[in-house]
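Attaching the record inline, Q. Sequence:
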Amino acid sequence: MNKTISIDNKIISSNSPAYLIAEIGLNHNNNIDTAYEMIKKAKESGADAVKFQAFKTENLFIKSSPAFDIFKKLELRKEDFIAIKKYCDEIGITFFASPFCFETADLLEDINVSVYKIASMDINYYELIEHIAMKRKPLIVSTGMSSLGEIERAVNSIYKIGNTNIILLHCISKYPSKPAEMNLSMISKLKNMFPELLIGLSDHCIDNTMSLSARTQGAVVFERHFTLDRDMEGPDQKISLDPAMFKDLREKLNQIDSGFIVPDERYDIEIAKGARRSLFAKCNISEGTIITKEMIAVVRPGNGIAPEYIGIFSGREAKRNIKEGEPFTMNDI
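Structure, as predicted:
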């Protein structure tokens, strides 16, 4: 079954190019001009979409949490999201976000996002998942910190609403993740467990190795944190890709994709003529002589009789004088 999902007229399937998301998240530092520059650079680096985080800090943390003040300073307003969405539309890149509460989910629907993200932390917040699923838009669901049972229940809660446009992202919610912690075998496990769904990777490793490996295992959607500079202030900058690294990921994903395309012709067929062997006379052979295997050289180039036919010549009478080094032909016997 080849599941297909369309986001802003861009097709996502097992046969389409990798879909690449630049997770800007909190890296904008609540500066709209920084957000614009990140979006522009993400687009130039090959991103299909940019993703932000939509939250009301009061609905995310208790006020005594050490994280409350940090997130409050990074909280975007509705007018910010309207401006960001407008800018994305103008330059031709998809905007969406992870809503962390009912209020921000409705806010995103008001500005007509085309896809939603369920963060790993909310995979067991089924009431919120169902509320977002009722928007009837595609859902990208991260699976960090979750059991297979929790993933299955989350998927079923979306199905219950009648929404089947789901993309699951394998994720290790550690920042950064080490390659040995990535458990990429989960991609195949998720594909087997949910053959009707598209599977991708939310990658928090320092480099692109795991994303590229995941592509060869059939992952179709990739989410990477994005920054202008890893030395910028902010909690996620150090584990984010800068524009050059992000562009490198896009180019290498495209190279991997090209390797799976079935060409109209085999480009190495002509090479076979020089690289393979064929049958040549190892010595002068007089007309009427019975050809023996010892008289046949199996050497390059391969533009004559193939080695598999040596048995046809051995034990047969030569119909002409054949000089040493001459290729055999079928008319020689």
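The chain is about 35% helix and 15% strand. The CA atoms of residues 280 and 326 lie 5 Å apart.

More tomorrow.
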